[in-house]
Design brief:
By secondary structure, the chain is of the alpha+beta class. The protein is built from 4 helices and 8 strands. A hairpin with a 3-residue loop joins strand 5 and strand 6.
């Protein structure tokens, strides 16, 4: 595992935005697939010991992903994501909101903007998360979003290392 990869995580309360830049020692196409294919997403997105369970995912503009983070005790925390823009292998945007098990969103939500680029075999992912309300953002941070997201990125780094060796 490479240990000198870029990782920046900044919370800006004045703009209700979280800025994340993460570098991966993997080709862009593999990293893109890891963010856009349910079978790969479910392998890394949940911070351990939680798991991710995608009920459905239709990765196209207007399509949605409905999934749950599942605790070791079986507690499910659902979220729904609606894809609003896709430029293959370079950028996609989505609206994200927590939801109940029947797909009813708990608003307000957040807008996520993912940008992918590759240089010298390393892929950089820039993620901007704009929250509709400061209270929602503060609640996310309070619930452990920062630590959970960092753990998820480490899961992804390890998964990409395994997948790159095929």
């Amino acid at each position: 595992m490479t240990t000198n990869l870029l990782f920046d995580f900044t919370v800006d309360k004045t703009t209700k935005t979280v800025f994340i830049t993460r570098e991966f020692d993997a080709e862009l196409s593999l990293v893109w697939d890891a963010f856009t294919k349910a079978e790969i997403l479910d392998q890394w997105v949940a911070p351990k010991p939680w798991t991710s369970k995608t009920k459905f995912m239709d990765f196209k503009v207007g399509g949605r992903r409905f999934y749950a983070m599942v605790s070791p005790e079986g507690q499910e925390r659902w979220a729904i994501q609606k894809y609003t823009s896709i430029s293959p292998k370079t950028n996609f945007k989505m609206f994200n909101a927590f939801a109940d098990k029947d797909e009813n969103p708990e608003l307000p939500g957040s807008d996520w903007d993912y940008t992918f680029s590759e240089q010298d075999g390393k892929t950089t992912v820039r993620i901007t998360i704009y929250n509709e309300s400061l209270a929602r953002m503060e609640k996310m941070i309070e619930m452990g979003f920062t630590e959970g997201f960092k753990a998820s990125m480490n899961n992804l780094e390890n998964l990409l290392a395994r997948l790159s060796q095929k």
